[in-house]
Amino acid sequence: MTVIDVRSILVVGGRRFVSAPVSAKFGMVVIAAYVLAALLAPHLTPYGEAEIVGTQFEPWSSKFWLGTDNLGRDMLTRLAFGARNTIGIALLTTCLAFSIGAFAGLAAATFAGWLDQILARLVDVLMSIPQLIFALLLLSIFGTSVSALVVVIALLDSTRVFRLSRAVAINVAVLDYVEAARLRGEGATWIMTREILPNIAPTLVAEFGLRFCFVFLLISALSFLGLGIQPPTADWGSMVRDSATLISYGDITPLLPAGAIALLAVAVNLVVDWLLHSASGLHDA
Amino acid sequence: MAPIAKIIGQRVALGMLTLWIVSVIIFAGVQFLPGDIATEMLGQSATAETIAAFRKSLGLDLPVHLRYAYWLADVLRGDLGTALSNGRDIGELIRPRLFNTLFLALTAAIMAVPSALLGGLLSALYRNTFFDRLINVFTLSSISLPEFFIAYILIMVLSAKAGIFPSLADVDSTAGLAGRLNAVALPALTLTLAVLAHMTRMTRTSIINLLANQYIETARLKGLPEWRVLVRHALPNAWAPIVTVVVLNLAYLITGVVIVEVVFVYPGLGQLIVDSVQKRDIPVVQACSLIFAATYVLLNLTADVLSIVTNPRLMHPK
């Protein structure tokens, strides 16, 4: 067993952080701030998540830093809890999408033949309907609940993960060491998880960031439409919707949750951009 | 038969097959409902006899494949059924809204396509300069912005502060062209910004790829100025990838239109589908998603066919 040396990981990680370009540093700092806000939400905020503490749409004051929403709940508190709910649900969905998509992709590449053909054609068809429209159709059938949302979006998004992991895994599946493993009689599970998976992992990690971004924006859009995360759970998409009327009076409050969504998406993209860039070995001339 | 006609024929046949499978999926979705449309429509209090009679009148007592055949035949004749929530004919409900949505999407496309081509061309011409970086940063960040964020910023600046355009885009059938254009100005601008980034980046990439070709090098070595190389030598060959990029991004408008219509309360197809999902009016959702999905499939098919027709290399398959 190898002993994981925490100190050397920190040193290497620190060095990589220092050598990263400004945009990636900015992205990482933003992501860290979001994660902290999400983890510490109950300790950072003066009120409860769904607690009604004032009258409707109170302006910014020392009591309510960012005012109150359409039901008189503290905006700042809900923003912090929104980090927890919105990011948490998007992360859960992305993980589910990856488990389904990567497993199916690996299986298709390992077994090839008819299984590969069936899965690939199925994914082609699923991808020929725009994701948002497909999600709307499925949510009208299964109803709008968080569990339906997570499963529907994960299934729809796993098609993209499948395509990528299948494409990468097919190239690995024909290499000599995989052939050697087959010949020594290893089972399919071993070949998939021990021979192929470690070799496609770096690609999947970068893709995870992109998929998270996409899922996060899709869930926020659905919540904004009133079909995603349901009240009283604090969530950025529905917060924009609830406070939208303020915008016509020139109040920027509705832009805050919308901006929170945009900033996180930009930050993740910046970091992924850097990861892909440094993984591909390209360097600025 | 010429090989190119054969390729296009195959591609169109594949597109039609996809369209057919999409219709099967949209029809089959409803079969997952707990209970069926009859129980949904009549509610909890209906007796078993009423439900059975109603099922018979809707044709729900037939086997699945027959129901699908009837449904498809109706759809092909343009009969989309009746809405659950108000009993109106879905075709009538959809027609004016479809027109509104097409008008909005067309306005956005007219604004987006030329500016994306120009932006992509200029940043390819002045690549790795400050101008190129500026466009790069702008497009990279606007790709990750949700449509409603762009929309509310535009409302904030152009409607609430400057008061140039209305923040609500409610149009009725009596409005003239000028009135309509004024109403859709902000939604169209939002959509334009949403698709502009992808289109610009893809145009830039395809032109830069093209500029790496040897005949471009030859033209440069002949001493031609850069703009002439670009316009006379690169551009004629760049149309194929650019047309594909444009059509693919028009397909992307479909997703954008749903959000934008809800933000601006614009009476289009996107708002109808969202309202119907909330009311769980499944026949209307089915009809709308069929239209959206068919448009998407057909646009992708068009992009494929155009890229086959305009690409000389694809005319001689190995």
UniProtKB/TrEMBL annotation, chain A:
<feature type="transmembrane region" description="Helical">
    <location>
        <begin position="208"/>
        <end position="229"/>
    </location>
</feature>
<feature type="transmembrane region" description="Helical">
    <location>
        <begin position="87"/>
        <end position="112"/>
    </location>
</feature>
<keyword id="KW-1133">Transmembrane helix</keyword>
<dbReference type="Pfam" id="PF00528">
    <property type="entry name" value="BPD_transp_1"/>
</dbReference>
<comment type="similarity">
    <text>Belongs to the binding-protein-dependent transport system permease family.</text>
</comment>
<keyword id="KW-0812">Transmembrane</keyword>
<protein>
    <submittedName>
        <fullName>Proline betaine ABC transporter permease</fullName>
    </submittedName>
</protein>
<feature type="transmembrane region" description="Helical">
    <location>
        <begin position="255"/>
        <end position="276"/>
    </location>
</feature>
<feature type="domain" description="ABC transmembrane type-1">
    <location>
        <begin position="83"/>
        <end position="276"/>
    </location>
</feature>
<dbReference type="InterPro" id="IPR035906">
    <property type="entry name" value="MetI-like_sf"/>
</dbReference>
<feature type="transmembrane region" description="Helical">
    <location>
        <begin position="20"/>
        <end position="41"/>
    </location>
</feature>
<keyword id="KW-1003">Cell membrane</keyword>
<dbReference type="InterPro" id="IPR000515">
    <property type="entry name" value="MetI-like"/>
</dbReference>
<dbReference type="InterPro" id="IPR050366">
    <property type="entry name" value="BP-dependent_transpt_permease"/>
</dbReference>
<keyword id="KW-0472">Membrane</keyword>
<keyword id="KW-0813">Transport</keyword>
<feature type="transmembrane region" description="Helical">
    <location>
        <begin position="132"/>
        <end position="156"/>
    </location>
</feature>
From TrEMBL, chain B:
<keyword id="KW-0812">Transmembrane</keyword>
<dbReference type="InterPro" id="IPR035906">
    <property type="entry name" value="MetI-like_sf"/>
</dbReference>
<dbReference type="Pfam" id="PF19300">
    <property type="entry name" value="BPD_transp_1_N"/>
</dbReference>
<feature type="transmembrane region" description="Helical">
    <location>
        <begin position="177"/>
        <end position="197"/>
    </location>
</feature>
<comment type="similarity">
    <text>Belongs to the binding-protein-dependent transport system permease family.</text>
</comment>
<dbReference type="InterPro" id="IPR000515">
    <property type="entry name" value="MetI-like"/>
</dbReference>
<dbReference type="InterPro" id="IPR045621">
    <property type="entry name" value="BPD_transp_1_N"/>
</dbReference>
<keyword id="KW-0472">Membrane</keyword>
<feature type="transmembrane region" description="Helical">
    <location>
        <begin position="238"/>
        <end position="264"/>
    </location>
</feature>
<keyword id="KW-0813">Transport</keyword>
<feature type="transmembrane region" description="Helical">
    <location>
        <begin position="284"/>
        <end position="309"/>
    </location>
</feature>
<dbReference type="Pfam" id="PF00528">
    <property type="entry name" value="BPD_transp_1"/>
</dbReference>
<protein>
    <submittedName>
        <fullName>Glutathione transport system permease protein GsiC</fullName>
    </submittedName>
</protein>
<keyword id="KW-1003">Cell membrane</keyword>
<feature type="transmembrane region" description="Helical">
    <location>
        <begin position="134"/>
        <end position="157"/>
    </location>
</feature>
<keyword id="KW-1133">Transmembrane helix</keyword>
<feature type="transmembrane region" description="Helical">
    <location>
        <begin position="102"/>
        <end position="122"/>
    </location>
</feature>
<feature type="domain" description="ABC transmembrane type-1">
    <location>
        <begin position="98"/>
        <end position="303"/>
    </location>
</feature>
<feature type="transmembrane region" description="Helical">
    <location>
        <begin position="12"/>
        <end position="33"/>
    </location>
</feature>
